[in-house]
Amino acid sequence: MSAIAHRSQLDATAALGLRLPDGREAFLVRVHGRISAFENRCPHQGIGLDFQPDVFLEPGGELIQCSMHGALFLPESGECVFGPCQGRHLVPVAIRIDDDGQIHLAE
Q1: CA distance 69 to 67
Q2: CB within 8 A of 103, min separation 6: which ones?
Q3: Cα 38 → chain centroid
Q4: H/E/C letters for each residue in 37-96?
Q5: Model confidence, pTM
Q6: Which range is the signal sequence, renumbered to this chain (predicted)?
Q7: Of 1, 31, 33, 75, which residue has the fewest beta carbons closer than 10 angstroms?
Q8: Of the candidates 61, 5, 70, which has an alpha carbon nearest to the alpha carbon of residue 33?
Q9: Which pLDDT score is estimated for 1?
Q10: What DSSP state is assigned to residue 4?
Q11: What does the alpha-carbon distance between residue 25 and residue 101 come to, in Å, rounded to a whole number?
Q12: What domains are defined for the chain?
């Protein structure tokens, strides 16, 4: 299967929105060197988290933030730790990163 992104695409913004081969909207984030992927859908109202392209992190760059109501999510697990959907989770997308930095969907 072809790559969905490359690690270097996260160098400038630490976040990248993308459409998966199956049509789902998703995003990648890099926090403290760890890359995670989730479906781009807030568990509160089912809307996309980004108001502007590739903006998925709060200004400090530590937490994923929903631009609609400010909900905050842990980048490791997708758990909402603040906001109207506290305790709920973003839907993870399983990825793997090869030695060349290509990011693929996990089998």
Answers
A1: 6
A2: 3, 4, 5, 6, 7, 28, 35, 37, 95, 96, 97
A3: 5
A4: EEECCCCCCCCCCCCCCCCCECCCCCCEECCCCCCEECCCCCEEEECCCCCCECCECCEE
A5: 0.94
A6: none
A7: 33
A8: 61
A9: 66
A10: S
A11: 21
A12: 5-105 (2.102.10.10)
